[in-house]
Amino acid sequence: MQRDKREKFGLLLGLVGVICFSLTLPSTSIAVEYFGTTVVGLGRTVVAAILVAVVLIVRKEKLPSPRQFKSLLIVAVGAVLGFPLLTSWAMEFLPVSHGAVELALLPLATTGFAMFRAKEIPSLKFWISSIIGSLAVIVYALHLGFGQLQFADLALLAAVIILGLSYAEGGILAKELGSWQVIAWAIMIGAPFFVIPVGLNLTTEMLNVPIHAWISFIYLAVVSQFLAYVAWYSGMAMGGIARVSQIQYLQPFLMILFAAAFLNESITLFTLVIAVIVVFSVILGKNAPVSKKGSVSEKN
């Protein structure tokens, strides 16, 4: 019974993490209008680092080893530099519902990089599902871009790739360093390099921005950049990676819902249909059998 309660609490924490992540693009869209790409994309990490430093000191966490530090650099490049910066820039030009559809490919990208790191050979089913999902996203982007891909679309797809690599590397490292500690140390690595560019982009006019813009920025710094990761990783640790990770399929639909609720974006049937196709392809891809290099047997 105790184990059952632990798994249920893990699922709840996973759901909390997904909901928190689903509010990231809407918050970014609001904040970037007033603070700009650099402050929103990099400044969130600088602020998060203050909270993270306190937590690490209070818990007396050990410093990562030199070998772990190399993996943390990959996580930092993706989760605290590339993804926040690219999505902040893209949200200046694209609606959140558009971004939600493209970011739905993230679990598939993570799975692909995880297979590569584990030296596994993706099956034909994985490649077919990847092609279906990618083509659906491209068709969607071309449709909204009147026949051509916008640079913002390319930025979002690049964000998916770089964060997928970061997630896969972080997932492997979490087994020895600890779940939330991975993102915590990645934040501490990246933050010192962001202070100068963020400082150069601060203006006195930012003191007069609306309260909802400040709330959005603080949310990105405290929740999206750190606390959401704590809930997500803790949820997977308690409820099981396989079970809890399924909740992630709700994320694009929650993003679309929040975009309609907080940004008054009109959601078309075409958007919902494409989102369903992409999520379905991700489910197929994540559950596709793989085989180890040098082995002819497959496993689920």
UniProtKB/TrEMBL annotation:
Membrane topology: Multi-pass membrane protein
Domain EamA as annotated: residue spans: 9-139, 151-284
Main location, first listed in the record: membrane
Regions crossing the membrane: 41-59, 71-90, 126-143, 149-168, 180-199, 211-232, 253-284
GO cellular component, one term: membrane
Pfam families the UniProt entry points to: EamA (PF00892)
Cellular compartments annotated: Endomembrane system
Keywords noted in UniProt: Membrane, Transmembrane, Transmembrane helix
PANTHER family: EAMA DOMAIN-CONTAINING PROTEIN, INNER MEMBRANE TRANSPORTER
Protein name: Multidrug transporter
Organism: Heyndrickxia oleronia
Lineage, highest ranks first: Bacteria, Bacillati, Bacillota, Bacilli, Bacillales
